[in-house]
UniProtKB/TrEMBL annotation:
Entry keyword Amino-acid biosynthesis: no
Keywords: Cell membrane, Membrane, Transmembrane, Transmembrane helix
Domain ABC3 transporter permease C-terminal as annotated: residue spans: 278-397
Similarity comment: family membership: Belongs to the ABC-4 integral membrane protein family. LolC/E subfamily.
Signal peptide annotation: none
UniProt topology in membrane: Multi-pass membrane protein
GO biological-process terms attached to the record: lipoprotein localization to outer membrane
Protein name: ABC transporter permease
Domain of life: Bacteria
Protein localization: Cell membrane
GO CC term, one of those recorded: plasma membrane protein complex
Membrane-spanning residues: 21-49, 274-300, 321-347, 367-387
C-alpha cells in the first residue's frame, strides 16, 4: 500500500480536535466546489451563446461562398456553371448580386442592401425559415424586406404605391454630358410580398428580389454577379470542394468557408470566451490560496502526529507527500462535485428552460465534455500548485519544534 496516500486519506476523513481548523477546511472545500461549478456554468453559457449567435449568421451564410478577389463583381460563364454542376460533393449553388441602396417610401427613407438572388438561393441557404409573414413573391417586381425596414418605413404589403430602391448611376462622363435633366440615380419600384425576421442587425440590412432585376438596376449583364453560394453534401470534404471550385473559377474569386465568412464574429466570440475563462480562473487562483492556508493549518494541527511518524522512520519527503496528496485530493474532489452540480444545472436548463431571455426563449446553454475537461484540468493544476507550495513548509526544523 502507498503509505503517504493511506495517511492522506485518513487525514482527509478525520476531524481536527480544534473546531477552527474544521471550519477552515469546510470553507476551503466549499469555495472549491462553488468556484468550479461557477466556471463550468459560465463556460457552458458562453458556448450556448456562441452557437445561438452563429445560428443567426448561418441562416444567410452558405457552406462555401465565392467572392470577387478584386472589385465588387466578377463574371461567370455558362461553361463555368456547367463545370460547377459536375463537382463531386457539391449539392447546389446560387448566384447573387448585391449593392448598397437608398430605400424610400412616402417621405421615409433608409440605407440597406438590395440583394438579387436566383431561383436556387432559398434551397442553398436557410433563408426560407426566416420568413415572418407573406411569401417570396411570384411576380417580377416583388421583394422581401427585413422586419426592421418594414417597421422603419411602414411599407404595407401588396400596396399600389411601391417601395422605391435608388442606386447611383455608374460614372460616365460629366453631368453636363449626361444632361441637366437626367437623374443621377437608377430606380427600381418593388412591391413588398413578404417580411423576414432573424435579428436586429440583419433585419435592417437586406431587401431580396430577383437577380435579373438587380442586374438591370446596376447596369450589369447577366453573367456578372457579386457572389456565388454553395451548398455541400452532408459527407462532402469541404477542402476538396473548395479546391475544385477554385480550379473552375480561377484567381478571380476567393472561396471562403462559413467560418471565414464570419471571421470577425468568431474572433470576437472566442476572445470573450477566453477572457471570461481567465477572469474566473483568476477568481479560482485567489480562492485556492485558501487551500494553501488550510493545509498549513492542518500541518500545524498534526504537528505531533508528524513528529511520531518521523520518529517511526518516515522521511521528510514522505511527510511532504502526505500533505501534498491531501491537498490534491481536496481540490480534485471539490472540483468534481462542483462540475457535477454545474452539470445538473446545465442539463436542467436544457430540459426545462427555467431561465428565460424572453417569455418564449430560454437562455441558450450548451453541455460540452470539453468544458468539463477544461474545468477539471484547471482545478487539478491549480490544486497541484497550491498543495506543492503548502507541503513544502514541512521541514526538520518544524518537526523538531
Amino acid at each position: 500500500m502507498n503509505f503517504p496516500l493511506y495517511i492522506a486519506k485518513r487525514y482527509l476523513r478525520s476531524k481536527s480536535s480544534q473546531n477552527a481548523v474544521n471550519i477552515i477546511n469546510f470553507i476551503t472545500f466549499l469555495v472549491i466546489v462553488i468556484g468550479s461549478a461557477a466556471l463550468f456554468i459560465v463556460l457552458s453559457a458562453f458556448a450556448g451563446l456562441k452557437t445561438f449567435s452563429l445560428s443567426f449568421s448561418n441562416t444567410f451564410d452558405p457552406d462555401l461562398k465565392a467572392l470577387p478577389a478584386t472589385g465588387k463583381v466578377f463574371s461567370i460563364s455558362q461553361e463555368e456553371q456547367d463545370q460547377l454542376k459536375n463537382i463531386q460533393g457539391l449539392a447546389n449553388y446560387a448566384k447573387e448580386l448585391e449593392e448598397r441602396a437608398y430605400l424610400t417610401y412616402k417621405e421615409k427613407s433608409t440605407i440597406a442592401y438590395i440583394k438579387g438572388v436566383d431561383e436556387n438561393y432559398r434551397s442553398v441557404t436557410g433563408v426560407d425559415s426566416t420568413l415572418y409573414f407573406g411569401n417570396w413573391g411570384n411576380s417580377e417586381f416583388e421583394g422581401v424586406i427585413g422586419i426592421g425596414i418594414y417597421n422603419l418605413l411602414g411599407v404595407p404589403m401588396n400596396n399600389r404605391q411601391p417601395l422605391e430602391v435608388l442606386v447611383p448611376k455608374p460614372g460616365k462622363g460629366s453631368l453636363s454630358q449626361q444632361g441637366f435633366n437626367s437623374k443621377p440615380y437608377d430606380e427600381l419600384p418593388l412591391t413588398v410580398s413578404g417580411v423576414y425576421a432573424v435579428e436586429e442587425n440583419l433585419d435592417k440590412k437586406y431587401v431580396f428580389t430577383q437577380l435579373p432585376l438587380v442586374q438591370d438596376l446596376l447596369q450589369k449583364d447577366s453573367a456578372e454577379v457579386s457572389g456565388i453560394n454553395f451548398k455541400l453534401d452532408e459527407k462532402a470534404d469541404v477542402e476538396a470542394v473548395r479546391e475544385a471550385v477554385k480550379t473552375v473559377l480561377g484567381d478571380k474569386v476567393l472561396v471562403l468557408s462559413r467560418r471565414e465568412q464570419n471571421n470577425s464574429l468568431y474572433r470576437m466570440l472566442n476572445t470573450e470566451n477566453l477572457a471570461t475563462y481567465l477572469i474566473f480562473t483568476l477568481v479560482l487562483i485567489i480562492a485556492l490560496f485558501n487551500v494553501v492556508g488550510a493545509i498549513i493549518m492542518m500541518i500545524l494541527d498534526k504537528q505531533q502526529n508528524s513528529k511520531t511518524l518521523f520518529s517511526l522512520g518516515t522521511t521528510i519527503k514522505e511527510l511532504r507527500r502526505i500533505y501534498f496528496i491531501q491537498g490534491l485530493l481536496v481540490t480534485s474532489f471539490g472540483g468534481l462535485i462542483g462540475v457535477l452540480i454545474g452539470s445538473l444545472l446545465i442539463i436542467s436548463q436544457l430540459l426545462f428552460g427555467w431561465l428565460k431571455i424572453t417569455p418564449s426563449l430560454a437562455y441558450p446553454v450548451e453541455y460540452s465534455v470539453m468544458n468539463l475537461f477544461i474545468v477539471m484540468g484547471t482545478i487539478v493544476v491549480l490544486g497541484f500548485i497550491s498543495a506543492k507550495i503548502a507541503s513544502s513548509r514541512i521541514s526538520k526544523k518544524l518537526i523538531s519544534i
